[in-house]
């Protein structure tokens, strides 16, 4: 029993937060390629296929860069590089989509409705995470890591729920649809997406915990 406890402690002491990021971003590359294959198997028009190919190439380059950066961060124990990658991910996953949604809602429903929809969406968590991470980097305030831990925990819970939904969709898709290439690829994509979302949630939650240890 003592040996088991010792092995568990040694595993977590050797585990690096960048591992979550490298797994999540590596899976994102695979998911993009699988989605491209599923799209091609659906018999899409040539113009749509070319557009999808371009978007896939851009996404794969982006996530490959992040994967490489996370692997480097793990090998060199560089939390600063993890911090940099997290800022980039938060901008692209939360801030930019929130800004686009805000502008779209503002044009249709007005500023007040657009602001309310943004504040009530999950995007606000990513925005606050980005703010406290930036404040911590600049040495502004004393409770940034505490707030990052709280927000990261909420993001992790939401990520687990979303990940579960992806897995459920993947299982239902293969059970309730005609089994063909597109269906199989879509199921694999959903299952991997579930793992990817959860790994990303773990990254948001674990990073401030590692900052405390530094």
Topology, pairings included?
Blueprint: H1 2-14, H2 18-41, H3 46-76, H4 79-109, H5 111-119, H6 123-138, H7 144-176, H8 181-213
Helix pairs in contact: 2-3, 2-8, 3-4, 4-5, 4-6, 4-8, 6-7, 7-8
Mean pLDDT across residues: 84
The largest pleated sheet is described as: none
Sequence of secondary-structure elements: HHHHHHHH
Annotation field: number of helices: 8
N- and C-termini, Cα separation = 30 Å
Q: What is the C-alpha radius of gyration, as a whole number of Å? A: 19 Å
Helical amount among residues, as a percent range? Answer: over 70%
Strand content: under 5%
Quick tags:
214 residues; mainly alpha; 8 helices
Describe the fold and architecture.
89% of the residues lie in helices and 0% in strands. It contains 8 helices and no strands. The mean pLDDT is 84.
Give a nutshell description of this structure.
About 90% of the residues lie in helices and about 0% in strands.
